[in-house]
Amino acid sequence: MAENELIKTDFSSELSQRYLAYALSTITSRSLPDVRDGLKPVHRRLLYAMRLLRLDPGQGFKKSARVVGDVMGKFHPHGDAAIYDAMVRLAQEFAMRYPLVDGQGNFGNIDGDNAAAMRYTEARMTLVAQLLLDGIDEDAVDFRQTYDGEGEEPIILPAAFPNLLANGAQGIAVGMATSIPPHNVIELIDAALHLIKYPNATHAKMLDFIKGPDFPTGGILIEAPEQLAEAYATGRGAFRLRAAWECETEKGGGWKIIITAIPYQVQKARLIEKMAELMQAKKMPFIADIMDESTEDIRLVIEPKSRRIDPALLMENLFRMTELEHRIGLNLNVLDATGTPGVMSIRDALLAWIEHQLVVLRRRSQHRLGKIAIRLEVLEGYLVVYLNLDEVIAIIREEDHPRPRLMERFGLNENQANAILDMRLRSLRKLEEMELRKERDDLQSEQSDLNAMMADESRQRAIITASIKSMRGQFIKTDQRMTRIEPQPVLDSDPAEMLVEKEPVTIVCSENGWIRSMKGRIEPDADIRFREGDAPKFHVHADSTDRLIIGLENGRFYTVSIEKLPGGRGFGEPLALMIDIPADTPLVSIMVAKSGKVLLASSSGHGFIAEVDQLIAQTKTGRQVMTVMDKARMVTAQPLTGACVGLVGSNRKLLIIQADEIPVMSKGRGVILQRYKDASLADVTSFAAEDGLSWLQTGGRTRTEKDITLWVGKRGGAGRMVPVGFPKPPRFT
């Protein structure tokens, strides 16, 4: 092909190939950690560069700029800001459960402030980082050429520490992402020790050891055990993490909330700012003030507006409204030993780490065997000297080229001959010969033991077990679980309601849907003014702390807190401003939301009984409870007050049935209560048989019929004509 020759190709094909190459590079070389050491390439290069700079835990610190410069110049051809940001995170105790970098200077804080420039900070490795690198000089892992071909870097670290699950990882690649929360290393080690002994242990067995994530900022995990088990078995899920808090009492009966830990990855300053915005918007009327008294430990003080509020109820609502409750995702998407990305269970991730430890053990043992073989070879040459000391000295003194002569005379190889020629004269003493023989015997014994171990996998697992137990001993005394695991409390109330003083009120609602709350118990015959063209429809006695359940003809129910209703001055406000009521849909009932049963019936003669709790709606859009078909409408929704139910149709036929014939349902159309031909259900009432059936006659007088035998029947009957004097149109009230 000529140098300037053009090659014609399909644009979409070329674009897809190049984008695929970019995606693979992002997935394997930037965003996803390796399951074996839990590190991305930039983190691995940072630790290796620090090792080359001899920044061990027992050594002094060096400027962060020096570390970043070495990483960028030798291993990582990217911007220094990105490298330093990665290094800073490895040093932050609130970001890493087990920091890999020991930072000196300003490395940022939990408020969200940035770290100081790298020329001002210093760093060295931690003991955990040293565990990750342990054995790297013993051929434990493979190396590859650096980007410029002038050096080598490790493809993976030996990783004697279960870093992937202990510290977690976050990353976004092309088409995939990873999100792994940190865990307690003692729990991980106990699970790993069990897997070494029982490699086929179930996913459920892992939960006996790993209780859940353990975040460096503490907090309280409230995820249900079954959801935790599913997340760990599939490698996908989410965990609900809450702030830790306590109630601090004061003299005089007052109290305040002290928040001692905030959720992982939540910035304290931003959290307080958001809470202050909610207070200004009057969305948290139950809080008087928020103060930040934090030093090295978190201490946020929340003062309530009223001591009558339940602290647990107040916090439950704060959890709903702010980042004091935070959802942490689990997406255990990692690169396996072949570099292939995939989602693993927590058990499979631990098994991969254990298998890596076995590989590292075998490679280090093979490396040691090679060193022993070289040393034994040299020792055999040394011993030849002691057996033929005079002759060896004579050859060295007299021969112009002693090396080939020694090799020929004593059957030595070049390495042995060079070692003999390099010997010092003081090494020829008798005691040295004894030490060489002892060293040879010890090395031969070690060589034999290593060869036996290399052929016995059970011994390899025993060695790994001992090594992991030794590491466990380094953490057991100091590493306590920081995140508590507790069940979620069940509190279904609003603390704002507790700020309302309980007092009797009367709810008045007009035919056009204008509603108001008037103080005291006002009787229906009182002089209450309404808008011109409007008239009274509902008159309900309640308390200011109650909630109202409002039913419409379409079978939909809404819930309104009485304390949110307008006062008694004026004509009130339209209900349509508070809840999403469809236009031209009349109100059927307004009742106080108190425990009990409610009778629902439609004009088609269908009905059922529902619990009050089934009618309560959580949103302004309401809750569909009764299904009305064709041109039917809901006629009534009233509390069930007796064992008998009276039904009257537009055809003036009355039927009395037993309430226990009507099923209790949560929603639906219901069953047939009374049958009609060219008529519909006009009204319903419930009463006790001994009290008799009452109705309101024309003129306002109430009539009660004690002998109801004539109208008693079974559900679904047609009924008999109403008594003489029953109102027209037929109604009970």
Task: Give the helix/strand layout.
Elements: H1 11-31, H2 41-52, E1 62-63, H3 64-75, H4 80-91, E2 101-104, E3 122-125, H5 127-133, E4 143-145, E5 152-154, H6 163-167, E6 169-172, E7 177-180, H7 185-197, H8 203-206, E8 220-221, H9 225-234, E9 236-242, E10 244-249, E11 255-261, H10 268-280, E12 287-292, E13 300-304, H11 311-321, E14 325-331, E15 333-335, E16 341-343, H12 346-387, H13 389-398, H14 402-410, H15 414-421, H16 430-454, H17 457-475, E17 484-485, H18 495-498, E18 504-510, E19 514-519, E20 536-543, E21 547-552, E22 556-561, E23 573-574, E24 587-592, E25 597-602, E26 606-611, E27 623-624, E28 634-639, E29 644-649, E30 653-658, E31 671-672, E32 681-687, E33 693-696, E34 702-705, E35 720-721
Parallel strand pairs: 8-17
Antiparallel strand pairs: 1-3, 2-3, 4-5, 6-7, 8-9, 9-14, 10-11, 11-13, 12-13, 15-16, 18-19, 18-20, 19-23, 21-22, 21-24, 22-27, 25-26, 25-28, 26-31, 29-30, 29-32, 30-35, 33-34
